[in-house]
Design a protein that fits this description.
The chain contains ten helices and five strands. It has 187 residues and is mainly α. The relative contact order is 0.08.
């Protein structure tokens, strides 16, 4: 549905300021007219505003809301947006994923940030994790974690605790999603 919704919004933006009928949209997107109505209803409901409006002439996109909607789809929510989200993501990559080093420029591309923003994020990480006696440092355009293994493990434990204190999943929920034996093995 997400792909069809994206195509629907893009089609209406491309035709802006003209109006397209449900029949025209259905033909272009190769779905039924009823599906077009459902996609538009669900999109507007999920967004909490009318991204697409209808009249007796057809459908029309609110240009500003539509462009904002498409940009959010291009940069998915899984990409960290705040400094804290970014330094936690980098810390996970270096500490939990056990990457010895991470290319700083590739990281900038992955996070859609500038090199200067990356430097600022690293400063915030070093400030937030100074109690753990670890730091992220730049070495020849690579990021590395500096500190004792014991301190790195304490930092990982702190990260897990911080994230775990905000969300709780019980074993029953896990059992519904995974094989029961795997859940009990983890427990």
């Amino acid at each position: 549905m997400e792909e069809i919704t994206r195509k629907l919004v893009k089609t209406l933006i491309d035709s802006y300021p003209d109006v397209l009928t449900g029949k025209e949209l259905a033909m272009l997107l190769k779905v039924s007219e009823k599906s077009i109505q459902k996609y538009i209803h669900n999109l507007n409901k999920e967004a909490g505003l009318d991204i697409i409006t209808s009249s007796n002439k057809g459908y029309k996109a609110d240009y500003t809301a539509s462009v904002r909607f498409l940009s959010q789809m291009i940069i998915p929510p899984s990409i960290p947006q705040t400094s804290e989200q970014r330094y936690r993501w980098i810390a996970k990559k270096l500490l939990i994923d056990k990457a010895d080093e991470v290319d700083a420029f590739q990281l900038c591309e992955d996070l859609f940030i500038s090199y200067q923003t990356l430097k600022n994020v690293i400063k915030k990480f070093n400030s937030a994790y100074e109690n753990y006696k670890i730091q992220i440092k730049f070495r020849k355009n690579k990021l590395v974690v500096v500190g004792d293994e014991y301190d790195k493990r304490k930092a990982i434990s702190g990260m897990i605790y911080d994230e775990g204190s905000h969300s709780y999943i019980n074993y029953k929920v896990l059992e519904e999603q995974f094989e029961k034996e795997l859940v009990w093995e983890v427990k």
